[in-house]
Amino acid sequence: MQIYDNLNFSNYIAKRILSSGKENSNMSSPIIKIGIIGIALGVAVMIITLAVVTGFQQQITNKITTFTSHLQINDYDQNQSLEPNPIMVNDSILKAIGSIPNVKLYQSFATKNGILKTKTDNEGIVLKGVDETYDWTNLKPYIKQGTVLSLNKDTVSKQIFISQTLANKLNIKLNQKMLVYFMSKKKMNDTTLSGSNYIDYEPRVKDFYVKGIFNTGFSDIDKNLVFVDLKQIQKLNYWESNEVAGYEVFLKDFNLLEQSLEDVNDIVGYKYTVSSAKQLQNSIFSWLEMIDVNAVVIITLMVLVAAINMISALLILILERTNMIGLLKAFGSSKQSVRKIFFYVSIQLLFKGLLIGNFIGIGFCLIQNYFHIIPLNPTTYYLDSVPINLSILHVLFVNVGTIVICMLMLFLPTLILNKITPIKAIQFS
């Protein structure tokens, strides 16, 4: 009876099984619902997990590299006091670095320790000097008051750009004047030592005006970092106009960080040292890698839960319809045709679960992305709300992966169909 072996017949019987499963009196009804809910929750959790994990990595990486850059070029023998020896990188080396395909831009900088003093309090700070070519684009989202520094190559600016943490701690307001104290190294000529030079330290003080206030959420950055004109640090250190502490290199693709590090190292040679953001902020990037491991564990568990729910639902349906299977075989339906019936049942359950799961997962991600309904403690997580990076590729990965794994695992319960014979099935009907 070949009529039982065509696709339309198997699909028709599958739809009848599912429609009868909607009856509350049917034993398989709650099993079918549980199976769909299990798949839906698993898919939703996987989509949310990938969005949150990649969101954390993306936002924290962007925030770190905004203030420390992807790569830093410094003097090879720099000390540990945040006041490295000056370097003079020639134009040919800089031009070669700029020609690397993954290099977006490079810019000079210098750092110097100081003490910020007000009428009532004082605080140790690290001044980061930048010039008029500095790219403020990525830093502007963190501005809370005022604006970034307005620098000119022909004049020395007295503007300072400080963090909200420092402003709150020292009760500093926008446009307020403040004094910063320094200890500067200066080479002195000692005639008693046959004209040899030696290093002497002298106290110096500079006045600045608060141009803007920023907040990154990184306590290590906010507690002491301020921005000033690079020429101020050059004057304080008695450097020449072409001497800087180093160069920050920003990349187009962070995933090519290691390769770009090697490329820059090959260009600068042994005279300078090149450090990556991962080396400069090793503890934070180690933490981000641990989040990756957690995501893999969660996704693996959710896939298993979804597959087990599908297997359980299919087994219940097969056992409940043992008599029907026996009758179909008695009327001449082949094993393949019977297996197709339950394959179609599984497909429909799976796609219902995927549809609901995608709606829940994507819906939650969109709501969190636009309304930030789940806050975070910036002191602990460096962000003020749960970040979301909703990617179409991630959604496709979750859906395709769930379908493939569930289909492979659903082959196991269909093996029980081979053991159902028409005589035994009809005998106990």
Q: What does this molecule look like?
A:
It is built from 15 helices and 10 strands. With 429 residues, the protein is of the alpha+beta class. Strands 1, 2, 3, 4, 5, 6, 7, 8, 9 and 10 form a 10-stranded mixed β-sheet that branches. The longest helix has 41 residues, at 28-68. The radius of gyration is 33 Å and the shape is elongated. The chain starts with 6 loop residues before the first helix and ends with a helix. Mean pLDDT is 84; it is low at 1-5.
- Mass-distribution shape: elongated
Order of helices and strands: HHEHEEEEHEEHEHEHEHHHHHHHH
Number of domains: 2
Helix content: 40-55%
Largest sheet: number of strands, sense, barrel closure: 10 strands, mixed
Show the helix and strand layout.
Elements: H1 7-20, H2 28-68, E1 71-75, H3 91-98, E2 103-117, E3 122-130, E4 143-146, E5 159-163, H4 164-170, E6 177-190, E7 196-214, H5 219-222, E8 225-229, H6 230-236, E9 246-251, H7 257-268, E10 272-276, H8 277-280, H9 282-320, H10 322-330, H11 335-371, H12 378-381, H13 392-409, H14 411-414, H15 422-427
Parallel strand pairs: 3-8, 5-7
Antiparallel strand pairs: 1-9, 1-10, 2-3, 2-6, 2-9, 4-7, 6-7
Helix pairs in contact: 1-11, 2-9, 2-11, 2-13, 9-11, 9-13, 11-13
